[in-house]
Design a protein that fits this description.
The chain contains 16 helices and 21 strands. The protein is an alpha/beta fold and 556 residues long. The chain folds into 3 domains: 68 residues, Roll (Ubiquitin-like (UB roll)); 140 residues, Threonyl-trna Synthetase, Chain A, domain 2 (Threonyl-tRNA Synthetase, Chain A, domain 2), CATH 3.30.980.10; 225 residues, no CATH class. A 5-stranded mixed beta sheet has the order 2-1-5-3-4. Strands 14-17-13-18-21 form a 5-stranded parallel beta sheet. It has a 4-stranded antiparallel beta sheet with strand order 6-7-12-11, with helices on one face. A hairpin with a 2-residue loop joins strand 3 and strand 4. Helix 8 packs across helix 9. The longest helix is centred in the middle third of the chain and has 25 residues. The radius of gyration is 25 Å and the shape is globular. The protein starts with a helix and ends in a 7-residue tail after the last helix.
Length: 556
């Protein structure tokens, strides 16, 4: 009898080191009632053996339990997706014959439009807002539902999704959906277990759809005002036009193309659209060559800035110019060098990590026609070493590439009127379903994981651990300058998740459960599962993607 009891129990170890046994399939919510009932309203999610799950998860093995409160990054993601689930339910109740799709993000906010060509009316949006409030005020239960793959496919088809959505997802036996009353949906992440946990949001009319305004911090009662981001509206509109040319909107479309062995055309057109944009940019710079002395190329981590710069230089040479490329990375101070009296070395994402004085002196001398020895930064040793001796030809531009290139303080020696600013980022507009989109930051993270492993000998776990700090650095030092540009280049390639399914998923699979960022790796794997693997052999060797997976014709 004792053996039988032992077989049907598990031991939970808590953060303070205490241990307690429970019956199998006990949920975290039930455990909270026993061990910490006073914290019930503050705990939103739970990390079990380094996997982030909802509070209704059935536990069936010995585990380490870490409670996640409102201030964790995982909780903010769950907040966003729970809010979306409520909005989708409300919309379905009011307009059962219509579907909405999340088109793209605007900062922390989401822009949604009807799948049909119809525009949402302002009166309809008022009804939607009332219905959302009603669902939240009722504090409805949100219940996880594990659907076998055939049942999941049936549910996707009901929602208007293509059967090819699951062509690449043959390794899993089920998908986790969530249910509010009779409304069932798939959000690809853990959700809160009550609708009443959502209390800060706004819905703003923006024809033909609406913007979901989401807080940057759910402990903060304010929602930041919408920034205009005119340049990005233009890019997203351009990208939608590209998607129509490619006839690709979602993962299912890519799977159908790969399955029918027509992927070469998709790749060639995607790459051709990149080249077209680069050629147009080179024409502008060439036409204004007397006024443009520096071309500043910036963007967040893993945007493909380096390859874009090299391809732009090729087009400028075709136009008769001889541009000189400078990378801000090569002007980093030595990693271990203290930069102030407090023995403080700033994060590598800060412009203070760059030797700005050395950079500006080199620029002044280059424009005077002098020979200048450009430094080279060795990422393996974390030190700057002497590089090539360069000389700039008269009336030719310097292409300055780096995260902080748009910050005027970094290139103080150059007259503002002589600068042409380009912002490069992977501004993805690819969805898994109408309600699940692949974020731009996830594409960049996948790129960074691959590049770090392949070229910088950085383990996957190391890069995942760094990512939160990288994102904070971007928010602080890069994104404030993104709207002050002359050109925005969208470096995303619509087929690249299928390539990462092939080259990166095995590395993510190898990450041990003992690693703290195991849950983040699993989240990325869940995204890649929706794509048929695409081997990289047919990708052009000048592609931006080659900067991250290898095989590029360019030296880095």
């Amino acid at each position: 009898m004792q053996l039988r009891i032992k077989e049907n129990t598990f031991t939970a170890t808590f953060e303070d080191g205490t241990k307690k046994s429970f019956l199998n399939k006990t949920t975290p919510l039930e455990i909270i009632d026993i061990v910490s009932p006073s914290s019930k309203n503050d705990i939103m999610l739970v990390r079990i053996n380094n996997l982030v799950v909802d509070l209704k998860y059935n536990i069936e093995e010995d585990c380490f339990i870490e409670w996640l409160y409102k201030d964790s990054p995982q909780t903010l993601r769950a907040y966003n997706n729970t809010l979306c689930m409520i909005i989708f339910k409300a919309f379905n109740e009011l307009f059962p014959d219509e579907q909405i799709i999340i088109n793209y993000s605007l900062g922390n906010n989401l822009y949604c439009t009807p799948v049909s060509a119809n525009s949402i009316r302002k009166k309809s949006l008022k009804k939607l807002k009332r219905k959302i409030k009603e669902i939240i005020d009722k504090d409805e239960e949100i219940t996880p539902q594990n659907l076998l793959m055939n049942k999941a496919l049936e549910e996707f088809i009901i929602k208007g999704e293509e059967p090819s959505l699951l062509l690449g997802n043959r390794e899993q036996s089920y998908l986790k959906f969530y249910k509010i009353e009779d409304y069932l949906d798939f959000l690809n992440s853990p959700l809160f277990i009550k609708t009443g946990n959502i209390n800060i949001y706004d819905i703003v009319y923006s024809s033909p759809g609406f913007i979901i305004k989401i807080p940057e911090d759910i402990n903060d009662k304010k929602i930041p005002p919408l920034s205009k981001q005119k340049s990005f509206y233009k890019v997203f509109k351009e990208y939608r036009h590209w998607n129509k040319i490619l006839n690709v909107q979602k993962a299912a479309d890519i799977n159908k193309i790969i399955d029918s062995d027509n992927i070469s055309d998709l790749i060639n057109i995607s790459e051709g659209l990149h080249e077209k944009k680069i050629v147009e940019t080179a024409k502008i710079i060439t036409y204004n060559k007397k006024n443009i002395r520096t071309v500043l190329i910036a963007g967040p981590s893993s945007s493909g800035k380096t390859t874009f710069t090299k391809r732009l230089a090729v087009q400028l040479r075709i136009n008769g110019l001889s541009p000189l490329i400078l990378s801000l990375d090569n002007y980093f101070y030595d990693i271990n060098r203290p930069l102030d009296n407090n023995n403080y070395t700033p994060e590598i994402e800060s412009p203070r990590a760059i030797n700005i004085e050395q950079l500006n002196n080199d620029l002044i001398n280059l424009f005077k026609g002098k020979n200048v020895q450009i430094p080279k930064f060795n990422f393996k040793t974390g030190k700057q070493i002497p590089g090539h001796i360069c000389k700039l030809k008269p009336d030719n531009p310097v292409l300055i590439e780096g995260m902080h290139a748009l910050n005027n303080d970094v290139t103080l020696a150059i007259n503002k009127k002589k600068k042409y600013k380009i912002y490069v980022s992977a501004l993805t507009q690819l969805n898994i379903t109408n309600h699940v989109r692949i974020s731009t930051s996830d594409i960049r993270l996948l790129r960074r994981l691959m590049r770090g492993y392949k070229f910088r000998k950085q383990p996957i776990a190391h890069t995942l651990n760094q990512w939160t700090d990288v994102r904070k650095g971007e928010e602080k030092y890069i994104f404030p300058f993104q709207e002050y540009t002359d050109t925005v280049f969208n470096s995303s390639l619509i087929y690249e998740p299928a390539v990462f399914r092939s080259v990166l998923k095995p590395l993510l699979d190898s990450l041990s459960k003992e690693k703290y960022i195991y849950s983040e790796a699993q989240r990325l794997i869940q995204i890649l599962y929706f794509f048929i693997p695409l081997e990289p052999d047919i990708i052009p060797h000048n592609s931006i993607l080659r900067e991250f997976i290898g095989g590029s014709i360019f030296d880095y």
